[in-house]
Amino acid sequence: MTVDDSGSGAGTSPASGGESRAESPSPTPAASEADTGDPSTDSRAFDAAGQGGAGAEEDEDEGTPEPPARATSRTLGEWTGDRAVDRAEAGTTAPGAHRVPEPPEDDPLALRLEQLILGAERRYTPFQAARTAGVSMELASRFWRAMGFADIGQAKALTEADVLALRRLAGLVEAGLLSEAMAVQVARSTGQTTARLAEWQIDSFLEGLTEPPEPGMTRTEVTYPLMELLLPELEEFLVYVWRRQLAAATGRVVQVTDDDEMVDRRLAIGFADLVGFTRLTRRMEEEEVGELVEAFETTSADLVAARGGRLIKTLGDEVLFAADDAGTAADIALRLIETLSGDETMPELRVGIAFGTVATRMGDVFGTTVNLASRLTSIAPKDAILVDSAFAEELTRTGEAPVSEAAAAEAAARAEKEGEQPPAYRFALQPMWQRPVRGLGVVEPWLLTRRD
């Protein structure tokens, strides 16, 4: 945020950040003297012992509501009523959450929804939030920008959750657990990931879930109770999925024996690209294009995950995936071709895969291996897979593809003659003509297929 240290100045449209309302073992917010609007109040530094001052009052966790019944068999009104009773009896809006006062009926819906989602009212300007958190305005601005929040001048748009988020990040730096640059990276990676997730969820909810359940109701009237119901359930599910993904990523890293490979690892990188997508979209309605892209991304994500790979990102008509070994990547690529070629609504697909050292940063991958996989994709035939020589060598080294088909035929004939089981290969490799590739020199691609 671009702000001055005077504590004055009018803001524009409010943009609020904040953390999940669920409590954690992190320090609690210090007392906020910023209620007076005076930016000169004393700041609270991070308490290494995990003790904060007397902060905004929080209710004790008086019980966790039972999971809601499935909405498919009940009306939104019935579900809303039952959940309201549960929350009234439990004394909380969600497990471990702040009790939020009921907004006045004449408040704008956007402000009421913001208060519901953040679990607190607007109390601070950016300057006051930084001072209360014991963080310099410069560092606070770096954190907020990294999280993807817009500049708001000195509007009073921040909450206790924003103060707590600043204190937690600054505390990790002060404790020596993270460098300042790493803390900013944490903020940026989290902000970018959750921003896309939030946009997707809201688009989906507004389109598919806010259809008025009763005649005479508007989408606006449905939005608030719907968000009230979904928020605690989605919050818990988000934390669950994140923990699962974190456990999987940690497991992959600790299995690496070489310390250098923990950062710069040898991976198989693959690109899958829809052929003629741009030309195709000129003949389609926007809604049809969106459905095609969603179907492609969904199918690709499911296949990559099911075969043991990782979907790095999607780019509309292209997906980027990674695998720890060449055999897994080869199986994923072939499954993609086989599955999508059987769908008449899908264009042809082409895939390029390379194997080598890859730099990983903020969930993305970089390096010559990634560039080579992209170039191979651009020259691959329709419904075909091209791999680089390093990938081909890795498949033959692990015994998943023969060095040559002639050698495989000789080995099979010899095994049959001697009454032995012939070698079993999963994949076949056919050398293609060497060709120059822009920015990478001359490469020798191999055509990858599945053996019968």
Short description:
This protein has helices at residues 76-90, 109-118, 126-133, 137-147, 160-174, 180-208, 219-254, 277-281, 286-306, 326-341, 368-379, 389-397, 405-417; strands spanning 264-274, 310-314, 318-323, 349-361, 364-366, 384-387, 427-431, 435-437, 441-443, 446-450. With 452 residues, the chain is an alpha+beta fold.
Your description of this structure?
The protein has 452 residues and is of the alpha+beta class. Helices cover 44% and strands 13% of the residues. It contains 13 helices and 10 strands. It has helices spanning 76-90, 109-118, 126-133, 137-147, 160-174, 180-208, 219-254, 277-281, 286-306, 326-341, 368-379, 389-397, 405-417; strands at 264-274, 310-314, 318-323, 349-361, 364-366, 384-387, 427-431, 435-437, 441-443, 446-450. The strands form 2 sheets. Strands 1, 2, 3, 4, 5, 6, 7 and 10 form an 8-stranded mixed beta sheet that branches. Helix 1 crosses helix 7, helix 2 (109-118) packs parallel to helix 7 (219-254) and helix 9 runs antiparallel to helix 10. The model is unreliable at 1-77 and 83-106 (pLDDT under 50).
